[in-house]
Specification:
The complex is a heterodimer. Chain A is of the alpha+beta class. Chain A has one domain: Winged helix-like DNA-binding domain superfamily/Winged helix DNA-binding domain (Arc Repressor Mutant, subunit A). Helix content of chain A is 59%, strand content 14%. In chain A, helix 1 crosses helix 2 and helix 1 crosses helix 4. The longest helix of chain A has 32 residues. Chain B contains 26 helices and 22 strands. In chain B, the strands form three sheets. In chain B, strands 1, 2, 3, 4, 5, 6, 7, 8, 9, 10 and 11 form an eleven-stranded mixed β-sheet that branches. The chains are: A alpha+beta, B alpha+beta. The interface between A and B is medium-sized, with 24 and 28 residues.
Chain lengths: 111, 908
């Protein structure tokens, strides 16, 4: 399923709220969590990460992976955390509304 | 190496951010790692490595190269963005840091910002005057096309020619009809009028041609211009335009004013229109404009009665230079038609942009000199502040060294120190607005129009001091000055303070980065600069003071003390000409009876007023025509005028009551006139004819009197005097010599005149000394300012010397203690300190001397009977400067001798 606009950012932030990760860790975590239902295009994802860093929602540092390779580790900044709070509740509200509307239609059609 | 430093640390230490190459490498490394991890993942899910790789690349959008390029691009943008953000944050941090530091040292902060406030404020005030009087465009449409056209007269023997001669109507007509360079031309002359309807009032006005307003692009606010045929010769309809000011004052801004009648000099004029607000003619004070054709045809036909200024609008396709050349050609035509046979040399004509003529060249030059002087003061203030900032910076030498050692860039530290200076400059700049507000108010009060000439306008010309405001230009100037000043006094100390070698300073304990003696220190250099600048300022103001003193000491030839003067004009038609002598006789008698009045007389012109009237004179019974006779001043005086003004009689007699209408015409001449017209002869009893007052048929010379100065800075004019009783005029000036304070008689004189001549406007009541003082007022004013600037500059330089000497004594306590312990006596120590100061002052004065010499060319044109290299001035200033340097070093020198050897050694 393709993602709604702006959703990818929130998902990345949400993922990082568990702790610092490098880019592929984020992607695979997202894929695992969604059971493969969320397909992230790799190029767009990497750009999104850069953009989030530019907006100071993420900070990046070089670290070492389990396999002893160098990788860029991303973590949330204070601003990132605040942004996540605001945006995720907005998104949830939005989805809630969608669900209500779509659900109501079905019930109205039932009788 | 750098990549190994964590980003956070790098930012903390203010190390430079990543280079473009580093960014590229990082992007590549991340992308490769990502790709590797994805392939690994896919392989672990059962793909072959080849399949996995293809799939991974596919997920990246198919082209690895494109993704790489995109990511590199976005990473670069990200880094740039972050760097800018960091800069801004750094800047804010620096400002906070500076504010904290400055708040801790209130004394330093207050000293610096107040010094700056005065310096910048004074500079802004002078700049505002400069801007209003010289720079701001004239308030007319396409003002660059306006040109002023003047006649150029050749010199007459000792008398210099002039290139600013006004025109006579016949000559103007030749120019008007012959010129091709201008779309339109016009003439005007300042003219005083009496309003005779309602309350009698004397007002300034202009006599103008009908094209005057169209040339300037000024349209009447109400009504319109005169009918265009009104320049035709002959008696024209009497129409007048009135100024907005007059309309509001006398007519209560009556909207139906057009077509109403106003009585000017007892003639009814139809009001044709009202000029727009703020317009007061090119003479700067006009309230009423009447057409030139209301003058009599006889007046207008006098080719050598020069009275009219000419203003023109240049054709847009012709340059100012071309217009000038074409005007010179028309000037030749004018000279062919009206040749000057007396001089036998050709007159010509000159066109120059009206903008150049807005103020006299003298005022233009004084303004620039003042601007230069005040900028010098600001510079001295900057140097002084630089010294203070340097002292402060070197007391923080240790802090700087530690920062440098930890790897902070020098540029970064310079920026930190500069920020501090800019914050100080901003503070000073903000405070300076108060100073300039006051300064501008003071400047706009110096009103040259208060001098009050008669025929000649003495205003600054096209622009008035009232137009000096604290406007946008001034604010921009203040801002610019603050920035320049901040860099000026901040940069040198910042560079100096961060230059200190790390090891040396740390080892040293950060005490001394400055050495005296063989090597010239930064501070010594600054003080020398200050002394040099102060020297230049002192020379400039010294020369001006001498010049003004010379100007004021010129003998006027009359005694202006204890004389009250007032003008009185019989409105035309109220008194027949024949009754005027009797009427004025009554008035004089009445005034002479006032307690406190000792002598009373009539004249037409006060001294130092550029001699109100000029005409042509010749020996014998007829002038040979105005074109071949010398120009003389002519004055109408009553019998006791010479006595009243204490003008000495050199030969013969003054007028008596017997010299009246019917008696033989008599004339008195000045010493200079006698010398010129009757060289080596006794003029008494000879005949002289002059071109005005009905004396062109000749008169007996009965006396020779001393020269009276008509202007301060030129040789005496050739003056002639004719008796008022033989040539009565309606408007005269009354001179009253008083026993005590003349001003005390002002009120009684006014009420006496109102009683005896109720329909006559009484105006321009002033003491004669106030008049003569007003003539030199602009010169005295600018000299006072220059003197003030010089004094401020000198004090700042003295403070600078004091500061450096004090510091030196403090830094050398230890050495001084040892010297004294070894037996050096107090006077030797004192001499050492003073010698040091004297050396700085002498070096500074030498540099200043060179500076003053090179600037003297600018000053020369402003000076009166002083050369720009006046040795006395230079010597006095050298003396003042030495005295100031000695005084400034005396306290530190004394302190040096009080150093107790034991204490100095223990503390050091």
């Amino acid at each position: 399923m393709a993602l709604l606009k702006g959703t990818l950012d929130v998902l990345v932030l949400k993922t990082l709220s568990w702790g610092p990760m490098h880019a592929f860790e984020i992607v695979s975590w997202l894929e695992d969590q969604s059971g493969g239902r969320v397909a992230v295009e790799d190029a767009a994802f990497l750009q999104a990460v850069h953009r989030l860093e530019e907006r100071k929602l993420l900070r990046a540092e070089w670290g070492t992976t389990k396999n002893a390779r160098r990788a860029r580790y991303y973590s949330l900044t204070e601003r990132g955390r605040a942004h996540l709070r605001v945006e995720s509740s907005r998104l949830v509200d939005h989805l809630d509304a969608l669900v209500t509307i779509l659900g109501a239609k079905q019930r109205a059609a039932a009788p | 190496m750098r990549a190994a430093i964590r980003d956070g640390v790098r930012r903390l230490l203010r190390l430079p951010s990543r280079t473009a190459r580093q960014i590229r490498d990082e992007v590549d490394e991340e992308l490769d790692g990502y790709l590797g991890a994805r392939i690994e993942q896919l392989v672990s899910r059962g793909m072959t490595p080849d399949e996995a790789r293809r799939e991974a690349v596919r997920r990246l959008g198919g082209s690895l190269e494109r993704v790489r390029a995109e990511l590199r691009h976005s990473a670069t943008r990200r880094e740039r963005h972050l760097a800018v953000r960091e800069r801004v944050e750094e800047g804010i941090q620096d400002v906070r840091y500076a504010l904290r530091g400055l708040a801790r040292q209130t004394g330093f902060t207050a000293t610096v910002s107040l010094t700056l406030a005065v310096g910048i404020g004074a500079t802004t005030s002078i700049f505002s005057a400069l801007n209003a009087l010289l720079l701001r465009p004239l308030p007319y449409a396409r003002a660059d096309e306006l040109m002023k056209v003047t006649l150029v007269t050749p010199g007459r023997g000792a008398v210099h020619g002039s290139d600013e001669m006004v025109w006579s109507y016949p000559k103007y007509a030749v120019f008007r009809d012959g010129q091709r360079a201008f779309t339109d031309v016009s003439a005007y002359a300042p003219n005083d009028f009496t309003l005779t309807s309602g309350e009698v009032e004397r007002i300034h006005g202009e006599t103008i041609t009908s094209h005057y307003l169209p040339v300037l692009g000024v349209r009447a606010e109400l009504g319109g211009n005169f009918a265009s045929d009104i320049d035709a010769h002959g008696d024209a309809r009497r129409e007048a335009l009135i100024s907005d000011v007059l309309w509001k004052r006398r007519f209560n801004a009556d909207p139906r004013i057009v077509g109403q009648i106003i009585d000017i000099d007892r003639q009814p004029f139809t009001i044709a229109g009202v000029t727009p607000e703020g317009f007061a003619g090119l003479s700067g004070q006009a309230e009423v404009f009447v057409p030139i054709t209301t003058r009599s045809a006889e007046d207008l036909n006098q080719a050598f009665d020069h009275e009219y200024s000419v203003v023109t609008r240049r054709r847009p396709d012709i340059s100012a230079g071309q217009a000038r050349a074409m005007t010179a050609l028309v000037g030749q035509e004018v000279d062919r038609r009206f040749p000057d046979l007396e001089i036998g040399k050709a007159w010509s004509a000159k066109a120059e942009p009206l903008d150049h003529a807005r103020v006299t060249s003298r005022i233009r030059r004084s303004l620039w000199v003042l601007m230069g002087a005040v900028a010098l003061v600001l510079l001295v203030a900057c140097v002084n502040i630089a010294n203070l900032v340097l002292a402060r910076a070197s007391s923080r030498g240790r802090e700087m060294a530690v920062r440098l050692a930890l790897g902070a860039g020098r540029a970064r530290l310079v920026r930190l120190l500069l920020t501090e200076s800019m914050v100080l400059a901003a503070l000073g700049g903000a405070l300076s607005l108060v100073v300039s507000w006051i300064g501008i108010r003071l400047l706009s009060r110096v009103d040259p129009t208060a001098i009050g000439g008669v025929g000649r306008s003495r205003s600054y010309g096209l622009v008035t001091v009232n137009s000096i405001h604290l406007d946008i230009a001034a604010l921009v100037f203040t801002l610019g000055a603050a920035i320049v000043v901040g860099v000026l006094f901040g940069l040198a100390p910042a560079l100096h303070a961060t230059r200190a070698s790390v090891a040396e300073t740390l080892k040293d304990g950060g005490v001394s980065t400055i050495q005296f003696g063989r090597r010239l220190s930064a501070r010594g250099l600054l003080v020398m600069t200050e002394v040099a600048l102060a020297f230049v300022l002192l020379v400039g103001s010294g020369l001006m003071i001498r010049s003004v003193a010379n100007l004021l000491s010129v003998p006027i030839g009359a005694d202006p003390r204890n004389v009250l003067t007032v003008r009185l004009t019989a409105p035309p038609g109220t008194v027949p000409r024949d009754s005027l002598p009797g009427l004025y006789e009554n008035i004089l008698r009445r005034l002479a009876a006032l307690p406190g009045a000792t002598r009373v007389a009539l004249g037409d012109c006060p001294p130092l007023n550029d001699g109100c009237n000029r005409t042509f004179a010749a020996r014998g019974n007829e002038t040979r025509g105005p074109d071949r006779s010398p120009l003389v001043g002519i004055h109408w005086v009553s019998a006791r005028w010479f006595e009243t003004l204490h003008v000495p009689v050199v030969r013969g007699r003054v007028f008596t009551d017997a010299d009246r209408v019917g008696a033989p015409k008599v004339i008195i001449i000045s010493v200079s006139t006698a010398r010129k017209l009757f060289p080596g002869e006794n003029p008494i009893g000879q005949r002289l004819s002059v071109g005005q007052g009905g004396f062109s048929g000749g008169a007996d010379i009965v006396g020779v009197v001393g020269d009276v100065r008509q202007s301060m800075d030129s040789t005496p004019m050739l003056d002639t005097y004719i008796p008022f009783a033989q040539s009565p005029r309606s408007g005269m000036m009354i001179f009253i010599r008083t026993a005590g304070d003349p001003a005390a008689l002002a009120a009684p004189v006014r009420s006496a005149l109102r009683e005896i001549a109720p329909r006559f406007p009484v105006y321009d009541l002033k003491t004669l000394s106030a008049r003569t003082a007003a003539i030199s007022a602009p010169a005295r004013f600018s000299t006072t300012l220059l003197g003030l600037f010089a004094a401020v500059g000198l004090s700042l330089a003295a403070i600078g010397i004091y500061g450096v000497m004090s510091l030196m004594v403090t830094e050398r306590r230890r050495e001084l203690g040892i010297r004294m312990a070894l037996g050096a006596d107090q006077s030797a120590v004192r001499r050492m300190v003073v010698r040091q100061a004297a050396r700085l002052a002498a070096a500074g004065a030498l540099i200043g001397l060179i500076g003053a010499f090179s600037l003297s060319r600018v000053m020369r044109a402003l000076l009166f009977e002083v050369t720009a290299f006046d040795p006395a001035t230079y010597l006095v200033i050298l003396f003042i400067l030495c005295a100031a340097a000695l005084a400034a070093s005396w306290i530190p020198a004394r302190r040096a001798t009080l150093v107790s050897p034991m204490e100095a050694l223990r503390q050091g």
